[in-house]
Amino acid sequence: MHILQVITGATLVSVLFVSAIPSSTSEFLPSTAEQNSAVLHSQGRSPPRLWTRLRDSIIESIWRVPSRQHNPSRIPSSLSIPRAPSSIRARYGDDVVLRFTIRSQNDVQALIEASNILFLDIWASTNEWVDIRLAKDVVSSLLGLLPSSLRTAHVPIIHDLAQAVYESYPQPVSSVPNPHHAFSPSVQQSSETQNIFFQDYQPLSVIIPWMRLLASMFSTHVRLVNLGTSFEGREIVGFCIGVRPANADLPTERRKTIVITGGSHAREWIGVSTVNYVAYSLITGYGKSRAITKLVEEFDWVLIPTMNPDGYVYTWETDRLWRKNRQENNLQFCPGVDLDRTWGYEWDGSDSRSNPCSEDFAGDGPFGGRESNVIARWALNETNHHNVTGAALRSMQSAGGSALDWFYHDLHVRYAYQLKLRDKGGYGFLLPKKNIVPTGKEVYNAVLVFGQFLLGRGAQDVDWEGDFQFPAQSRPNVPEKEYRGPDEEYDISNQLEDDDNENDTLLAFRTQKV
């Protein structure tokens, strides 16, 4: 499953590795918001200025579908997806993905041991099943290592991995048919997209110019920040979103920061797209939505689409299913470390994690991953070791050396969560593009709820319901006793004021897929 991570504090918050952390100075953000604040808080709305109209027109023309009647899902039935080219066939051969049904803890242990022996790629695991990628000619070897209860307890969910990988890359619309032939029919889902940028997954060569465009078009409340460079020299870039309201009493007062990051694992494209979707919603919603404007004026937001740019680029250019970063190891033919296993808290390099060829290789020591080291140094610098909040969306239990553990234990994040992203079906890391917008909406709604919670009583003057990106009848079924609205007795702002002498750590989100 995919993961989204957010961390909030006085300087930082992260999603995907999405995390949020509060900033103490907020120097990277504009100091005033006279235009949008006046528009939003006045009884009547003034006509937008010429530049605002021009800016919005350009954004709409570039990133919006011009006609609502256009239906990109209607593709002539005579068209068919070409067969995967030889280069992809050579890399993935006759690999498949099998789902094993789990009935006991012994089954789980047997699968783990057999997978370690054969160096297999475990895609996902739950209390009910485990998905494993392997070559067809290795299936018999795997079954031979398993107890009899598991030898018939499996089904293929991706029967042609090479073709599935090929279909996951963007293709010309004219050549993309509706079915996903490489997948089992039972896991197909309906599509939904309106924004051109989010109609498909985007490479880093498109994402970075897109980020620069948004920063230039919405300079009143957006700028880009370079957190550092990757092993191969690429910038780790994030959005900085925030603005102080015109009536702010103390322009230098410390503000909470929410950091959202994604793409710690290179092959988890949905995490990268989700962070971009949340960022776009915050950026374009400011001055139009009272809820978003409130959040942007009260908190500093840092959204990092991918903290593993080298690995992400490698998934586009060479190996779609690459997981680690791209730094050199002792074994030249097994580069990379699992960035989510290289953080300092209870780092664990034992067992399979000590093997450079393992997908879970934890490096040679704590913070041995170039990119995790960069992010940690940036977080410490921004927070001065305080005011951090984090939350994570992931599909497996937190393990030693993870970013979530480090933010929680070493930076004393008050609340740490893991939120699972799609897919719950059989696509694994090759989640179809039609899931980009629905997944983005789900996480955007979570961010709204989180922001509403942090505002406490300050959220009472905002109609939050109207800003959720799903119909009211589709809202999660949460028992009333478990739901706490902004108008109830508890107020988190009181707790924050009481804790000013401590590390004002709040929460961390993270987007990722195991």
Automatic annotation (TrEMBL):
Cofactor(s) needed for function: Zn(2+)
Residues annotated as domain Peptidase M14: 200-454
Biased composition (Basic and acidic residues): 478-487
Location of the protein in the cell: Secreted; Vacuole
Comp. bias intervals (Acidic residues): 488-503
InterPro entries linked: CARBOXYPEPT_ZN_1, Peptidase_M14
SUPFAM superfamilies noted in UniProt: Zn-dependent exopeptidases
Annotated spans, Disordered: 470-503
UniProt keyword terms in alphabetical order: Carboxypeptidase, Cell wall biogenesis/degradation, Disulfide bond, Hydrolase, Metal-binding, Metalloprotease, Protease, Secreted, Signal, Vacuole, Zinc
The protein's role, per its UniProt record: Inactive carboxypeptidase that may play a role in cell wall organization and biogenesis.
Protein name per the record: Inactive metallocarboxypeptidase ECM14
Species of origin: Coccidioides immitis H538.4
